[in-house]
Amino acid sequence: MEIGEVVQELLNGEKTAIPINPGFGPEGFFDISKSVVVSWIVMAFLMIFTLIMTAGLRTHNISKRQLIIETAVVKLQDLIGSGLGEHGREYVSWLLTVLLYLGVCNISGLFGFTPPTMDLNVTAALAITSIVLVQVASIRKKGGIGWLKSFAKPMAVIAPMNIMELAIKPLSLCMRLFGNILAATVIMEMLKTIIPVFVPALLSIYFDLFDGLLQAYVFVFLTSLYIGEAVE
C-alpha cells in the first residue's frame, strides 16, 4: 500500500459517529463526527480522573497521592510558565488544561480511537482559540489603543505584516499539530502492513505516546510564547 493511499483512506474515511436527521437543513449538517465523540470521551475521562485525584485533599498530613499530584501540577505549571513571563502567569491554568486535553487526545490511538487532532476542524478550533486568547491577553495588558498601536511596532511600515500574523500564527499552530499527528498515524499504518505485529507495537510507544505528548507540549509552549510576547 502506498503512502498516498493510506493518507486518502485516513482522510476520506467515514467520519460520522452519530447520524442525526431532523428533517430540515443540509444532509449531514447535524451529524456528530467521531472526533467530537472521542473529544467527549477524553473530557469525561479527564473530569473523572481529576475528581478522583482531588478527592479528600488536606492541608496537613497529606497522602502520597496528593503529594504526587501536587508535585506534578507544580512542575507542569513551571514548565509552561517559563514562556509566559511575569505578566502572563495568570494563563497557566488554561494552558495546563489544554496540555492535558491535547496529550490524552494525541495518545488515544493507543486505545483504538482515532485521535481527534487528526481532524482539521479540531486543530483549527484549538489554534483559533489560542490566538484569540493571545489577543485578549494583549488587550487586557495594553488596553485597546495600546493593542492597536502594537501593530505599528517597531515601525509603522511593518504594520501590514504584523496584522498578517493574526492569520499566520493560528494557521501555523493548526497545520503543525494536524500534520504531525497525521504523519505519525500514516507511518504506523504503513508499518502494520509490512512488519510483524510486535514491531509496530513497540514503535507505537514512540509515535503514539512520545510524539503525541511532544506535539501537545509544542502547541502549548508556542501559545505561551505568543502570550508572553503579547503582554511584555
Descriptive account of the structure:
This protein has one domain. Helices cover 71% and strands 2% of the residues. It has 7 helices and 2 strands, in the order αββαααααα. Strands 1-2 form a two-stranded antiparallel sheet. α1 packs across α6, α3 crosses α4 and α4 packs antiparallel against α7.
Keywords, separated by commas or semicolons:
2 strands, 232 residues, 7 helices, single chain, mainly alpha
Helix-residue proportion: over 70%
Q: How many domains, as an integer?
A: 1
Instruction: Summarize the main sheet.
Output: 2 strands, antiparallel
| Radius of gyration, CA atoms, in whole angstroms | 21 Å
* Low-confidence spans: none
Q: Strand order, biggest sheet? A: 1-2
Strand content is under 5%
The 3D shape can be described as: globular
End-to-end CA span: 51 Å
The arrangement of helices and strands along the chain is: HEEHHHHHH
Total helical segments = 7
Write down the overall mean pLDDT: 82
Would you tell me the structural class of the helices and strands? mainly alpha
Number of strands: 2
How is the topology of this model organized?
Elements: H1 3-12, E1 16-18, E2 32-33, H2 34-53, H3 64-81, H4 92-106, H5 120-150, H6 159-194, H7 198-231
Antiparallel strand pairs: 1-2
Helix pairs in contact: 1-6, 2-4, 3-4, 4-7, 5-6, 5-7, 6-7
Compact summary:
With 232 residues, the protein is mostly helical. It has helices spanning 3-12, 34-53, 64-81, 92-106, 120-150, 159-194, 198-231, and strands at residues 16-18, 32-33.
